[in-house]
Amino acid sequence: MTRRLPTVLAVGVIFASSACQPPQPEVLSEADREAIRAVSQQWTERILARDFAGLAALYSEDAVFMPPNEPAVDGRANIQAWMESFPPVTAMDLQIVEIEGRGDLAYVWGSYTLTVAMPGAEPVEDTGKFIEIRRRAPDGTWPLARDIFNSDIPVPE
Fold first, then answer.
1. Which residues pair with 147 in a beta bridge?
2. Does the structure show a pLDDT above 70 at 22?
3. How much is the pLDDT for 143?
4. Is-contact 105 134, C-beta < 8 A?
5. 123 and 47 in contact (C-beta within 8 Å)?
6. Which of 51, 56, 72, 110 would you label with 131, given CA atoms 20 to 30 Å apart?
């Protein structure tokens, strides 16, 4: 019996310490991933339709949008104003590479191609990559909380 005591104590310590561990957040479900993909599809549709109010609605109120070569844009209303000032996007394709997360937090990364109509000039084509951080809202939607993108095309010298 004395020889078993250390083993019994060790097993007891293991069980006790595992009981004290905080529960791990749930991994994203396939339904969560589909909801996130749907928001990305809506984003593409709304930028092409120049539906800036609808586009801004895909962001949380306190979202931060981080375009290349410019300061960050804070808040949904300012994001909408930034989008309204951007030249018309005439073609857009987002390719999601990965959606991952736990609990109410997710990130999305991928690539894009787009064509922008430039006033008085030839259209500009761009390719690049993006990362989005999303927080699940109380209604179960996945608005963008942080959004950053940058071009693969070098800045002209």
1. 65, 132
2. no
3. 97
4. yes
5. no
6. 51
- Could you read off the pLDDT of 110-132 as tens digits, one per residue? 999 999 998 899 999 999 999 99
CB 118 within 8 A of CB 100: no
48 in Cβ contact with 89 (< 8 Å): yes
Residues paired with residue 111 on neighbouring β-strands, in sequence order: 95, 129
In angstroms, the Cα distances linking 144 to 23, 76, 99, 103 are 26, 10, 13, 15
pLDDT one-digit tens code per residue, 29-59: 999 999 999 999 999 999 999 999 999 999 9
Q: Could you tell me the two tokens for 113?
A: 């191609």
What does the alpha-carbon distance between residue 30 and residue 146 come to, in Å, rounded to a whole number? 22
Residue with tokens 């905080």: 22
